[in-house]
Design a protein that fits this description.
Immunoglobulin-like; 6-stranded mixed sheet; 18% helix; extended; ceramidase; N-acylsphingosine amidohydrolase activity; secreted
Length: 237
């Protein structure tokens, strides 16, 4: 019901401010963020009942009204061709009061004589020296726990292709063919990351390499330092 009321309100705002660009056939779709952005958004009536969804509506009984108010502002600006809408208040940052049952990383170091990002186990081409579609290429890098930075706007692993003397990203963690595995050697307690690439049927022939990205800290309170490493080049036929 909350979604229905929001769609109807936005549609009404668009049709009444769009100079004929929008009409009764306009279809409004809610494509919203999920996973604890603002939890549930119950109607005012449902909020008073305090069942599951209403009890998880974090910002009170008028949450839906606030959403409708702000989306109507955006819809009106869109319909009238306005380029700038004043930024409203941001939701509170509650990360400092959230319970954490998993301890933060406390600082890692690589084995003596190596750096994070150095290759621990390089690519081993198959007999004949070239990989074929369906083969799996893998390389392992010295690497600390990935939890120092989740790289949500980046990636831990990339397959790069050599094009005109430049390495260009061809596959990353958006692709089901690429696997990133991290673990600790129980005897030495040093961490390593393995990148595996299962060559898809649409992979173009050429020269490739596997590249790893990561970060670490010298101590718990020191800033993150970032590193990268790359495997040897290999060919795909």
């Amino acid at each position: 019901m909350a979604g229905r009321r929001l769609r109807e309100a936005v549609k009404e705002t668009l049709t009444s401010n769009g100079n004929g660009e929008f009409d009764d056939e306009t279809h409004v779709v809610i494509a919203g963020l999920t996973n604890t952005y603002s939890q549930y958004i119950a109607t005012f009536e449902e909020y008073k009942q305090q069942r599951y969804e209403a009890a998880s509506t974090l910002y009170g009984p008028h949450t839906l009204s606030a959403y409708i108010q702000e989306f109507n502002k955006l819809a009106k600006a869109m319909a009238q061709g306005e380029n700038i809408v004043p930024k409203g208040p941001s939701p509170p940052d509650l990360s400092s009061v959230q319970l954490k049952l998993l301890l933060d990383p406390f600082g890692d170091s690589p084995p003596p004589g190596v750096n994070f990002g150095d290759v621990k186990q390089d690519i081993h081409p198959p007999k004949g020296g070239s990989f074929n579609k369906g083969d799996r290429a893998s390389a392992t890098f010295w690497s600390p726990t990935p939890r120092y930075d989740l790289l949500t706007e980046g990636t831990y692993a990339v397959v790069e292709m050599l094009q005109r003397e430049r390495w260009v990203p061809a596959y990353d963690d958006d692709d089901f063919s690429l696997f990133f595995k991290w673990g600790v050697d129980n005897s030495t307690f040093y961490g390593s990351a393995t990148i595996e690439w299962e060559l898809p049927e649409d992979a173009s022939p050429g020269v490739y390499r596997l590249r790893h990205f990561g970060s670490t800290k010298k101590t718990k309170d020191s800033p993150n330092t970032y590193f990268t490493g790359a495997s040897s080049a290999f060919t795909v036929s």
